[in-house]
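Input/output pair, single chain:
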Amino acid sequence: MTATIEPEVGKSRRRKEDERLITGRTRWTDNIALPGMLHLAVLRSPFAHAKIVSIDTAAAKSAPGVIAVYTAQDLDPDGSIGMPCAWPITPDMKAPRRPVLAAGTVNFAGEGVAVVVARSSAEAHDALEEIDVEYDELPVILDMEAAIADGAPLVHKDLGTNTSAVWKFDSAEAGTGGNVEDAISSSEVVLKRRFRQQRLVPAFMEPRACVVDPTGTQITMWSATQIPHILRVMSALTLGIPEHKLRVIAPDVGGGFGGKIGVLPEEMMALLVAQKLGKPVKWNETRSETMLAAHHGRDQIQDITISATRDGQVTGLKVELLANLGAYNGLVGPGVPILGAFMFNAIYKIPAYHFACTNVYTTTTLTDAYRGAGRPEATFAIERIMDELAVELGMDPLELREKNWIKHEEFPFTTVCGLTYDSGNYEAATEKAKQLFDYEGLRAEQEKRRTSKDKVQLGIGISTFTEMCGLAPSRVLGSLDYGAGGWEYASIRMLPTGKVEVTTGASAHGQGHETAWSQIVADQLGVAFEDVEILHGDTQSSHKGLDTYGSRSLVVGGIAIVKAAEKVVAKAKPIAAHLLECAEDDLEFANGKFTVRGTETATTIGDVALAVFAAHNLPDGVEPSLDSDATFDPENFSFPHGTHLCAAEVDTETGRIKLRSYVCVDDVGVAVNPLIVEGQVHGGLAQGIAQALFEGTEHDESGTLTTGTFADYLLPSAADLPSFTTDRTETPSTTNPLGAKGVGEAGTIASTPAVVNAVIDAVRPFGVNDIEMPLTPMRVWHAIQHGTTDAGGPGRGEAGGGLGSIDATGGAQ
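Output:
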């Protein structure tokens, strides 16, 4: 009998890539140094909106070490190059051309105006000071509502409007639910709220960078990108470079969070300059450039109307959004709110639903995908208004949620948006979270503090969420006018010594692919975990793929690996049968061995690989190869879910917030590596809590970004956050063979409303039902003093208004 080997899937292995990443003994884009390499530095506009009257580059061209200085006229004389947008959400979407360098007009503070090429980075940056640009300032447009008002100044005059597109979904028109206006007009309770999603910066550890080597017959680009395959295709289409003559490599990448999902003007600039000069060039942005000119996230105004019966049954939901695109369209920016459109109904059985989104241009940095991309915004709105509805009805907010959520026995469940949730158990996750959190005990303590008028009030925040992730299927994305599919590719190469090389189209930037993929392959082929090598991020070694975003790596890319492994076994089986002199039907495969059923006669898949290499004794007509590949296009999204509970103490005399307890129980289906899941959840929680309490961009009235450094744009460190209590329930996905669901965005999606709900719950006795994020002590204090629902008072950075830090238990100092 074949011995049983402990499966790898489900094992908490430490990540095999961490040694080189943590010690820095690896290759980042900025580490790359090529013979004769030149350096680029970009001159950026200090104005948010202005005509370029003239650019004098003469002094810069004669500066030490400078090789060349280019403007838009030099790199794109006929004005034909524009950055791609892969998601035109409506046929009539207004889309301005985004140039490589500003031509004629700058439309946000930080837009590139000229590029210096020099022998060193320092010389290139020094020469920027020698460029003389004359600007004629134009009116700035910062506010979304003002931008679409009659007579508003235009960001792009040729468009004739600041409205890019209006996208709508109506359940009555789609045949997936009732008429929302009828539901609202006939309901006993109707509640309206406005929520503001502030603008955020994807503050990845490694700034964006690229190196281009035009030497030889093929151009090679290294880029700190999430999307090497898409970057290759889009670069070829944008610049007319033959795709087979362009190789794109994403080496180890220091974080992304959606912030490295774009096709950048600087990447196109580097390609153009490298070809023009015939020399390798490098561009590496400064941290200030990241804050200023890398794309931003979120930035929505959400007007929400919910209707219900007096006993708490939700009858309708109406959502009207304004989404700030910034000055241009990002690669997928116009579609980000559309991803959220399908998630406002969340885990609830809402019978009637209407969604409308207006995408607006302003003179600000463009927005695009940021961790969760549309789903955190939707979850925030529905979980906030469910709390508000519970207050209106005098119900416990968990009781209200349970009354309306989909019960576990009702899966699969088709929602009011037409999506089919395949599996879930919201009751189990919530019950476990309540026990870990001591929900009843904290409610009792809260009541005691309120009765005694304690200066430190306790609030309890709830977020019960689900999300659609594993972005795919291709047909669904096509129906939404997305410019690409949702499939993923993998290949497996069996080496003669029994070792395994795997190529994957999913490109890691910190997720632990090399470890998780090795675990999957080890189980599928019965080889040792250590004997698997994962190759990724290079369009030459892994020639096909759709890359990494939207929690799709495991549930799409990982399944492609499973499918490729199945083909390897299928190709090996007739060869094993030939070697063992038996019929194929008599063979069983388990733990890496082909065994003749009912006997001890066996051969390993490694033995078969060596026999294939020698090719001395193969069945007639069988090619000497076990190598296999697969392209997987899922039939459905995956739908992880969870319950997050937060206890926050608020000092009513100072506005100080202390996160006393945070419990989350997530259901991500089958976890390939629970340790990686834990890390993903922790990282997501940090980002979601940061939106609630810390982060947010600010502009002055001239459109200048006033939060352009980490001294002004506040990020929490590990020491600034509480210890998290995390756990899992498991309802396997029914739409993939691993039973897995995505996890990369879960913590970010769920945590923001949990924290805000906790703070609002604490100060609600003072007449406060909303405070604009981030919930700084000054904003909280001002709301308590005035019983207001807006931000009010001095903002961050003004006297007494800074958030300061949060102590190890989460309290603002």
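Residues 790-813 have pLDDT under 50 and may be disordered. The chain is about 30% helix and 25% strand.
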